[in-house]
Write a structure and sequence with these properties.
The protein is of the alpha+beta class. It has 38 helices and 13 strands. The strands form four sheets. It has a six-stranded antiparallel beta sheet. Strands 7-9-10 form a three-stranded antiparallel beta sheet. It has a two-stranded antiparallel ribbon with strand order 8-11. A hairpin with a 3-residue loop joins strand 2 and strand 3. Helix 4 packs across helix 10. The chain starts with a helix and ends with a helix. Pfam families: Pkinase. Keywords: ATP-binding, Kinase, Membrane, Nucleotide-binding, Transferase, Transmembrane, Transmembrane helix. This is Protein kinase. InterPro entries: Kinase-like_dom_sf, Prot_kinase_dom, Protein_kinase_ATP_BS, Ser/Thr_kinase_AS, TPR-like_helical_dom_sf.
Length: 941
Amino acid sequence: MSGQAVSKRVLARVGTDVQKYRIERLIGIGGMAAVYAATHRNGNRVAIKFLLERYADDPAICRLFSREAYVANEVGHPGAVNVLDDDIDDDGCPFMVMPLLEGESLRRRWEEKGKRLPLTEVAVFIADALDVLAAAHAKGIVHRDIKPDNLFVTNTGHVRVLDFGIARRLEGDGTGTATGQMLGTPAFMPPEQALGERTAIGPHSDCWAVGATMFLLLSGEFVHPADNSNAQLAAAATKRARSLAEVASTLPVAAVQLVDKALAFDIGQRWPSAREMREALLEAFGSALGKPVSDVATDVRREIATQLSPAGDDLHANTTLEREHRSQVGGMTERDAQTSGGPKQSRAAAGNISGPSRHVGDEATTVLAAGVVKGVAPRTRTIWVSVIGLFVFLAVGVAVLGRGQGKQAEVPAVPTARATTIVDLPISPTCKNEAVIHYREGLIAMRKATWDVAHAAFEKAAALDPACPEPHVQLALTGYSLTYPIATEREWFRQALAVRDALGERDRLMLDALSPLIMSEPADRQETTRRLDEMARRFPYDAQVLDYAAIAHLLSASDPATAQRVLELAREETAIDPLAANGWQMQAGTYALLGRQDDERAALRKCLEVAPGSTDCLDQRGRSLRECGECEAALTDTRSWIVNAPRNHRAYLTLAQALAATGAPLESVESALQQMRDLGSKEWSDVIYVYYSALLAALNGDFVQAQKLAEQMAAQAQVSSVLLHHVRMSALLVDIFVETGQEARAVPVAQRFLRRKSAAPAGFWRAAAFEPLVLSAMFRPARAQWLDWSEHWEKSSLSELTKQQAWALRWGPISDTKDVGAQAWAARPSEEPSALKPADQQYIVPVMADAFEGRIALAAGEYESAVKSLEASVKPCFRLEQPFPNTRAHFWLGQAKEYTGDVAGACNAYGVVLQRWGNAKPRSVTAENAKKRAHALGCTL
């Protein structure tokens, strides 16, 4: 259902009676619940929170919804808002009833006061909050989400603590999360909570969050400054807090010491409980203010009672369950719930929307029932700034960021009446409700550049309602970008074609456009690009059409002019929908192609700002860091990815690659690969895990195990329809046999591959770069045959490789003598300055090409050129992905440095080889040669 349909269903309750309550108006809609102002038949006004209908049949969600009532009531303190009633309406939808509060959140008050509150107010408000928490802690309840948004200042000046929906009982609470998962808000999350260490969470954790709240209220800055909640979460898990004195040097020393102790990284150094922290606060702030906090409180409450008029009814019952639900499905733990304002624009604690992922200087936002995001100025002035045609689909609580005028990136906004974001795409009214929900979840995930999540959602939708046509289209469109066998992808496409007649014109054209890419053998990229270009002209304000047109151009980009076309399309997409993470990722990919690294990083930061959990952008940023040799940074970034997406199999593969690149123990890399296997699909378990395990064994010199796994992969490849699997397996076996001095065994592997190659369809995956490694096995026993095959390969590979790469990959594997090196160097092509490497090229191909170009130069006696190419090849963090080319490149680099007189550099390069393969089993030819040369140089290894 669309966001507009959701709002209509929710608004239908207004003016109706639900048991003994009359629903008067809608106050807010969150990811899991809608909140209303209502009147009991006895005249009492209340707030009622209804679970959204789509979740009413889910026992687990209903259980989470109801537990807030029991936990809040158990606290037994007037500052913890009780739940007055809970029941189920006539349609089977659970609801709970709470008092209707008047006032404002502490976050809103902080914003209206210039983002710094006076010491007097902080003392009074935090003392109130700590008193509530002390009562909760005494009952064994830890709140786990203390922050300014969840502290509500009533119009009498007293603070009420909201949102016990994710609270945890310290004993016997089976509703918490397992180790490795976390709930809460990153900017106010203590280290143990950010790390998902459930058993370490206790009263001291709430004290840390109180300290972080005080830090923000008194200084105007977060404890850990960061561009987005993803970075904040990583900082919370790994970094010690700054001292409050660093950002608020004029504060009394006693106040600074109180906050700093609350924010201690080590649990044992913090305030152990809210009761002790409150007692210390009363003493410290009383001394700083010159009179007891109780006396200060009288003045503060009197002033607030004057300021806050009871005219605006404000609600404390924020939509908590969306956080719980999102943590279960692997999304962000921070609440994305937004609220809708009534005519009075009441300052409601329900659905406060200035969450921690926003910059401190950003405006607050609110989401109207119709789904249009608007900026909300402080109460003293009202400025409405509309954001482009944005409908909010709340099935999984998508995060929405407000956007003011002047903040649009690079291109002006397009007319809202003509814009279509991906989440605006329609679905047939005959589709089953369950399929509609998963379809909408998939669209939201696509918008956030988490295509693996989107694909899984479309797959569920198609299975739940095979006659519903739109999920089949999106399943086919997303499947091609993931690592599925081409036969599987073509089956999805055939299923989409089977329902083609039930689709609208736009979706029929999308299928027609992608058909040459998916259903042709070989894939016809040019025709797909032409058709998508035509669609972009017909549907110039359709974000998804522009996205796919940009992808098509990027896949075939061979010159800067084509790359500029990609940028134009991607910028148009983000103009239509600034929250389209795909558009920002596309811009980043194009900048990478053009070698504009700073622009690439900026675009990825933007992607992760609008979609903090974007697996695709996190993946691309980590790969960019590894390509630049920033191995430690890549490892840190990957850990952050896993914090946000703890069940994403690609994240664990990237973790294994990053760990190997930083020299982590073998067991750590193995563990990451095992988690990748356990979380991935069957295709990953059967092939990718075995392949990377073989690479890991080879990297560590265990060629016996590597060969065993490669042969296991060979057996699996017999039934695989992915050419890439066949060529990788064959290249791996050839490398193992050559490295262990068994070159004769490599020949039948190469012959078998060549005989079977034509039976394995390539689809749209790039495989040619690995073929020379296989063909090289034919060099000595069949030189004439190798020359014919490799020459044909070099010509046919130019659609996948640059001329320079094709030349290096063809000649590099066999350039082990001066004669061959001279012949190869003489055949070196002159690369056109404007040539670009294919955008969808395997990311290790340029590194392989550099290594082999260096080897050719070495054999040809071009030593300075050899050093330059070989240093470029060993800099990136790709040890695990290519253990043979990378380790051999170090050996060749050692030789080149010898010839240029750099003995120390040569010894270092040989040392890398011997560290990896010095004790290889069976023996390593490269390591033996490195040992001899190192000994001759007198290297101390």
